[in-house]
Amino acid sequence: MPCLRELTFPYVIINECIQGMEPDVLVEIRKGCKKLVLIGDQEQVGSVIIHPQLQGSSLAKSLFECILEQPRIPKMMLQMQY
């Protein structure tokens, strides 16, 4: 839709992001994102890669997992759950 091309998303919040692969998330954050909040649990089951050639590739890792490995990106862990 042409009208959606002009939209920007300065704040993006992605819940259960452990289930989304990196290309899935990049669509949202490339549209002018200034603040990104990823919510997820890296101990839960992530996305499922069915194609045998893609299993074990970088596509099998979520953006959430990639960011967790980067020491320079600030992270915050939930301290209390209600």
Briefly, what is this?
The protein is α+β, with helices and mostly antiparallel strands. It is built from two helices and two strands.
Mean pLDDT metric:
77
| Shape assignment | globular
**In which range does the helix fraction lie?**
10-25%
Helices and strands, in N-to-C order?
EHEH
Number of domains: 1
Strand content: 5-15%
Biggest beta sheet summary: 2 strands, parallel
Rg over alpha carbons: 14 Å
Number of helices in the DSSP assignment: 2
Query: What structural class do the secondary elements suggest?
Result: alpha+beta
Q: What is the number of E strands?
A: 2
Span between termini? 41 Å
For the largest beta sheet, what order do the strands appear in spatially?
A: 1-2
Low-confidence stretches: none
Domain DNA2/NAM7 helicase helicase: 4-50
GO molecular function: helicase activity
Protein name: DNA2/NAM7 helicase helicase domain-containing protein
InterPro entries: DNA2/NAM7_AAA_11, P-loop_NTPase
Structural overview:
Helices cover 17% and strands 12% of the residues. It is α+β, with helices and mostly antiparallel strands and 82 residues long. It has one domain. 11% of the residues are buried.
Question: Keywords, please?
Answer:
82 residues, alpha+beta, single chain, globular
Q: How would the blueprint of this fold be written?
A:
Layout: E1 11-15, H1 22-29, E2 35-39, H2 63-68
Parallel strand pairs: 1-2
